[in-house]
Task: inverse folding
């Protein structure tokens, strides 16, 4: 069981490194820096894991694939922003209806929901900006 968990961690972690939207060159530089730190601290397991990650990046990473991945990430986050905007509008409509009915108990509840949706929208917008910046850095 313990060996299985360790194996899964070792296998999935290098793949997570590839999943980033940094250029292949930047990923290799990052892995080299981490490898040097691991060597300085005598962490042989980390060095081995990073060597696997480096090999996978050298084998599978292309800048074209990274640009596609970044573009896909931007589109996905744009959809999240649109969804969050729609949810906020719906929550605002629900609040307006509660105010029209004059139900104090529902107004408070709907106000909280509007604020939650507003925060979710702001978070989605920040994520989108980050993805757009990542995509721009690859070009």
Result:
């Amino acid at each position: 069981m313990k060996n299985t968990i360790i194996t899964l961690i070792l296998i999935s972690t290098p793949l997570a490194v590839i999943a980033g939207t940094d250029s292949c060159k930047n990923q290799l530089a990052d892995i080299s820096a981490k490898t040097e730190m691991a060597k300085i601290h005598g962490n042989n397991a980390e060095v081995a894991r990073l060597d696997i990650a480096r090999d996978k990046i050298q084998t599978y990473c292309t800048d074209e694939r990274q640009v596609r991945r970044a573009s896909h990430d931007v589109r996905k986050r744009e959809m999240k922003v649109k969804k969050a905007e729609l949810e906020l509008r719906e929550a605002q409509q629900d609040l307006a209806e509660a105010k029209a009915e004059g139900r104090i108990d529902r107004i408070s509840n709907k106000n909280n929901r509007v604020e939650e949706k507003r925060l979710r929208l702001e978070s989605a917008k920040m994520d989108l900006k980050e993805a757009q910046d990542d995509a721009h850095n690859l070009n």
